[in-house]
Design goal:
Elements: H1 11-41, H2 47-74, H3 83-89, H4 101-128, H5 132-156
Helix pairs in contact: 1-2, 1-3, 1-4, 2-5, 4-5
GO molecular function, one term: oxidoreductase activity, acting on metal ions
Organism: Bacteriovorax stolpii (Bdellovibrio stolpii)
Protein name: DNA starvation/stationary phase protection protein
């Protein structure tokens, strides 16, 4: 038996918000995997700095994945949780081949910025639905990704 959800957001809007959050979850998980890959495989004179930095970033992303998925569930929708679903939903593509440290940083800047764009794209329905918990989540995620993109970008200059 499915219990009716009555949190002040109509079902159509809840589903639309959850679908947007599912794209955000897929982007976040894909970026997590890419960052973890680069943590393992970075080489060169900046190895120690980047290895440590990437570890901090993928740990932060791991926590974010859980928070986004739990918000989807709170809205009464099943969170995607397979590589197939993430691949279909994500705007971030997997990296192929061996990259040098500078290329890895550039890939991660692009990934961080993609997550921000995805989060920002959900705001119209969130605002229209008066969904403050999701708005708060999106704002915190955008702030984290914009800051990380800035820090990574500064390493390319």
């Amino acid at each position: 038996m499915k219990t009716k959800i009555d949190i002040g957001i109509d079902e159509k809007s809840r589903i639309e918000i959850a679908n947007g959050l599912s794209r955000l979850l897929a982007d976040t998980y894909t970026l997590y995997l890419k960052t973890h890959n680069f943590h393992w495989n970075v080489t060169g004179p900046m190895f120690q700095t980047l290895h440590t930095m990437f570890e901090g970033q993928y740990n932060e992303l791991a926590l974010a994945v859980d928070e986004v998925a739990e918000r989807i569930r709170a809205l009464g929708v099943k969170a995607p949780g397979t590589y197939t679903e993430f691949s279909r939903l994500s705007s971030i593509k997997e990296t192929q081949g061996d990259l040098n440290a500078q290329q890895m940083i550039a890939e991660l800047v692009a990934g961080q910025e993609a997550v921000v764009r995805t989060a920002r794209s959900i705001f119209p329905v969130v605002d229209e639905s008066n969904d403050q918990p999701t708005a708060d989540l999106l704002t915190r995620r955008m702030e984290a990704h914009e800051k990380t993109a800035w820090m990574l970008r500064s390493m390319l200059e």
